[in-house]
TrEMBL record:
Protein topology in the membrane: Multi-pass membrane protein
Lineage of the organism: Bacteria, Pseudomonadati, Pseudomonadota, Gammaproteobacteria, Vibrionales
GO molecular function: antiporter activity; xenobiotic transmembrane transporter activity
Subcellular localization, as worded in the UniProt entry: Cell inner membrane
Protein name: Multidrug resistance protein NorM
Pfam hit, one: MatE
UniProt keyword annotation of Transmembrane present: yes
GO cellular component, one term: plasma membrane
Keywords: Antiport, Cell membrane, Ion transport, Membrane, Transmembrane, Transmembrane helix, Transport
C-alpha cells in the first residue's frame, strides 16, 4: 500500500488531497450554478420551486454523506493498519446495502409527495413544478449514493485526482444535457424542470460507472468472495462503520434540516425571499469550496495517520499539526472570499435573475452571513478531525450546539423583525459558537 499520506510533509499532504477535491467540487458547484441559471430563464416561479426542493435534496444527500464519512474513517484506519482485503470487502458490502437503502428512501419520499413540501411553506400552485423537478431525482438516488460511497472510499486511500476528473466529466455531461432537455434540441422536446432532473440523473449514472472502474483498478472492490476472509473481522468493520456513521449522519442531516426550517421561516416573506435564499446558498457553496474540500479530506487523512499512530508508526504530534494547519487555512480562505463576495456579490446574483428585490435580499445575505465564514470553517474542520480519530460524538456535539442552540433560535428571533434580521441571526450563530469553542 502507498503510505505517502503517512510520510509526506503535512502541508504537502493537505494540498495534494485538497486541491483535486476542491477542483472537483468547484466544477460541480459551477455546473449547479449554470443549472440554476438555465432554470432561472424559465421564470421566478421555477427558480422558487427548485429553492423549495433544495432542503429535501440536501437532506437525503447529507444522509449518505454521513454514511460516507463513517465509511471513509474506517477504511482509512484499515489501510493505515495494513488490512487491505478487509477494506475492499467493506466497500463492496457498503455499495450493496446503501444502494438498496437509498432506493427505499427515494420511494418513500416520492409517495409522501406534496405533504413534505407543504411543511416548508410551499403554496399549492408551486407543487406541480416542484414535482416535475424532484421526482426523477428521488428515483435516481441509488446512483448518487453509490457515487458518494465510491468517492469516499477512493479518498480514504488517498486517490484524489481521478475521482475529481470523474466529477468533472459528470458535471460537464450534466451541463450539456441540461440545455438539451430543458429547452429542447432536435428530436428532444423541451422538458423544462423535468429535463433538468433527467440530465442530473444521467450524469449520476455516468459518474457511477467511472467510479466503479476506478475502484476495480485500485484493487478496492472484490471481484469474488474469498473463503479465507475473516468474517468476524468484517462484521466488526461493519459495526465500526455504523458506530461512526450514526453520529456523522446526524451531524450531516442537521444542516439540511436547519436549511429546511429556515426556508419555512423565510417563506413568510414571500416567493422572492425564498428565491433569494435558494440563489445565495449556491453562491455560498461555491465560495466555501476550499473549506469544504479541506473538511472532506481531513477525515481520511487523519484516519490513516490515526491508524498508523495506533500501530506506533507515527507520532500524535503529526495529527496535532494537521488540525492546526487546516484551521489556519480555513480562516484565511473565509476572510478572502468574504471580501470577494462583498465586492462582486450583487453582480453574481444578477446573473441568475434581474428582479431587483431578489438581488437586494440576496446581497444583504452575502454581506451579513459571509462575515462568519472563518468561524464556520473552523467548526467544520474540527468536526472532520474528530471523525478521523474515531470520536464522532464530539463532532456531533459541535453540530448539535451550532444548529439547535444558535442557528434556529436566532433565525426565528430575527424573523420577528424582518428578513434581514434572519440573516443577522444566521451570521451570529457561527461567531457565538466560535467563542464557545475558544472558551
Amino acid at each position: 500500500m502507498d503510505n505517502a499520506l503517512l510520510k509526506k510533509p503535512i502541508g504537502s499532504a493537505l494540498v495534494s488531497m485538497a486541491a483535486p477535491t476542491a477542483v472537483g467540487m468547484l466544477l460541480t458547484f459551477l455546473f449547479q450554478l449554470v443549472d440554476t441559471y438555465f432554470i432561472g430563464q424559465l421564470g421566478v416561479k421555477s427558480l422558487t420551486a427548485i429553492s423549495f426542493t433544495y432542503p429535501i435534496y440536501i437532506l437525503i444527500v447529507g444522509l449518505f454523506m454521513g454514511i460516507s464519512a463513517g465509511l471513509s474513517a474506517v477504511i482509512g484506519r484499515l489501510l493505515g493498519e495494513g488490512y487491505i482485503d478487509r477494506a475492499s470487502y467493506l466497500i463492496g458490502l457498503s455499495l450493496v446495502i446503501f444502494g438498496f437503502l437509498s432506493a427505499i428512501i427515494g420511494l418513500v419520499c416520492y409517495l409522501l409527495g406534496a405533504s413534505v413540501f407543504e411543511l416548508l411553506g410551499m403554496s399549492d400552485d408551486l407543487y406541480p413544478l416542484v414535482a416535475d423537478y424532484i421526482n426523477p431525482l428521488f428515483f435516481g438516488m441509488p446512483l448518487l449514493s453509490a457515487v458518494l460511497i465510491a468517492n469516499a472510499s477512493l479518498m480514504a486511500k488517498g486517490v484524489m485526482l481521478k475521482p475529481m476528473l470523474v466529477m468533472a466529466v459528470g458535471g460537464f455531461t450534466n451541463l450539456i444535457l441540461d440545455y438539451v432537455f430543458i429547452f429542447g434540441w432536435g428530436p428532444v422536446p423541451a422538458l423544462a424542470l423535468t429535463g433538468a432532473a433527467i440530465a442530473t440523473v444521467i450524469s449520476w449514472g455516468i459518474m457511477l460507472g467511472l467510479m466503479l472502474i476506478l475502484l476495480v483498478k485500485e484493487h478496492m472492490l472484490p471481484l469474488h468472495f474469498a473463503e479465507s476472509l475473516d468474517k468476524v473481522a468484517l462484521y466488526a468493520d461493519v459495526r465500526d462503520t455504523a458506530r461512526l456513521a450514526t453520529p456523522a449522519i446526524a451531524a450531516q442531516i442537521l444542516t439540511p434540516l436547519s436549511v429546511a426550517v429556515i426556508t419555512r421561516i423565510v417563506s413568510a416573506y414571500g416567493e422572492n425571499a425564498v428565491a433569494a435564499y435558494g440563489i445565495v446558498t449556491r453562491i455560498e457553496s461555491l465560495a466555501l469550496t476550499g473549506i469544504l474540500a479541506l473538511s472532506v479530506i481531513i477525515t481520511p487523512l487523519v484516519a490513516q495517520n490515526y491508524g498508523a499512530y495506533r500501530q506506533g508508526n507515527v507520532s500524535f504530534l503529526r495529527l496535532d499539526n494537521i488540525i492546526a494547519l487546516s484551521g489556519r487555512i480555513a480562516v484565511y480562505w473565509g476572510v478572502i472570499f468574504y471580501v470577494i463576495l462583498a465586492l462582486i456579490g450583487r453582480m453574481l446574483v444578477t446573473f441568475f435573475t434581474p428582479e431587483q428585490q431578489i438581488v437586494d435580499t440576496a446581497y444583504r445575505y452575502l454581506l451579513i452571513v459571509g462575515f462568519s465564514f472563518p468561524a464556520f470553517g473552523l467548526a467544520l474542520i474540527s468536526a472532520s478531525f474528530f471523525n478521523g480519530i474515531q470520536l464522532p460524538m464530539l463532532s456531533l456535539k459541535l453540530t448539535l450546539a451550532k444548529t439547535l442552540l444558535f442557528t434556529l433560535p436566532l433565525a426565528a428571533l430575527g424573523s420577528l423583525f424582518s428578513e434581514t434580521f434572519i440573516w443577522v441571526g444566521l451570521g451570529l450563530c457561527c461567531l457565538i459558537r466560535l467563542e464557545d469553542m475558544a472558551a
